[in-house]
Amino acid sequence: MRARPATLFLPSIRRISLIAGAGAILLSAGLAGCSKQEAAPEPLRAVRTMVVGRDVAGGEAVYAAEIRARTESRLGFRVAGKLTSRPVELGQAVRKGQLLAELDVADLGLGAEAAQAAVRAAQVNAEQAASDVKRFEDLHAQGYISTAELERRQNTVRAAQATLEQARAQAAVQGNQARYSKLLADVSGVVTAVEAEPGAVLGAGTPVVRLAQDGPRDVAFQVPEDQIGALRGLLGKAGALRVTLWGAEGQALSATLREVAAAADPVGRTFLAKASLGKDASEVRLGQTATVSLGRPAREDVRRLPLSAVAEQGGRSVVWVLDAAAMSVQPVPVVTGTPDGNHVVVTEGLQAGQEIVTAGLHVLTPGQKVVRYIDPKRPGAPAAALPVSATASAAR
């Protein structure tokens, strides 16, 4: 038997080597995939902070207000028709009896003519019935007709007279309808809104313009629920409120609380209040912005925070408190009171001297590491307010 040459076994050896190498590579890849990777460190967050102090809140309540007319009417036509003209514009002053708008009078004119024709026809019938009854009275005197026949003819006269009166009344109504095609100003005032344009077909009563009557002016403002009790006590007291017009902060006008809504607004949950400016209303303009101020008892030793410092978490109000030693933050539940201007009053949960976050709290988590942000534009701020890494994390 002849021996096989050694070269016949070389391909098999190479295949075994390749398979063994591939297995080693796969094994090392699997081991690498199973190994745990270290989590990236949480980036620093830049926050703006403030130190809580002892403040005095209250003493004066300030509400945003608007100047309005005491009486403002939405005027429309008494009849339906097509609007052909509206000679007045928004903001225009009008006099009593001035034409505000006009309807197409074609159909109304035809109705008035038909009513006049009905009057003439009823008049002819009434005259004819009156002539007939005179002849029947002569015949009754001569004994040619019965008394019952004469009474029937007399009733015909009365019916014809009633028909004539009805036709005259209907003609008067149609005449009024034709006159109603012109919308006239009942009183002098200012047009505060335009609600219909020429060419529109309007129904009876559809508003065309809104007219603010000349006369007394009111300042209207919204009051929160917790202040409505104290405000009602000022009803009718002259000069209980001070009104400051926008752009004239140095000039305060006295006002008398005239009206407070009985029900709260369903959306804002505030009550509408109106105060009369009286004789001081000569210089104010409709729609002008104003502020209403009234005194209230001051509260001592409270914590007044910016509105941006309070967040909601789990249905509660929280404030992020900074631990200066660890440079980390934690949320602390607080109890808030009545807003005081652009600040909120915290009644429970904070102590004087604590440092809280006022900006950047929307990206914080409990135990978050932070750095203080210092506005470089603020006078006296250091040149390098934040490290580059902190600035980048704040931007993210």
Describe this protein's structure:
The chain has 396 residues and is of the alpha+beta class. It has four domains: 47-56 and 300-395, conserved putative lor/sdh protein from methanococcus maripaludis s2 fold (Beta Barrel); 61-70 and 216-298, Elongation Factor Tu (Ef-tu), domain 3 (Beta Barrel); 78-103 and 181-214, RNA polymerase II/Efflux pump adaptor protein, barrel-sandwich hybrid domain (OB fold (Dihydrolipoamide Acetyltransferase, E2P), Beta Barrel); 105-180, Helix Hairpins (Orthogonal Bundle). Helices cover 27% and strands 36% of the residues. The strands form four sheets. It has a six-stranded mixed beta sheet with strand order 16-17-18-22-1-21. A six-stranded antiparallel β-barrel has the order 2-11-14-13-12-15. Strands 3-10-8-5 form a four-stranded antiparallel beta sheet, with no helix packed on it. A hairpin with a 4-residue loop joins strand 17 (316-323) and strand 18. Helix 2 (106-141) runs antiparallel to helix 3. The longest helix has 36 residues, at 106-141. The two termini are 82 Å apart.
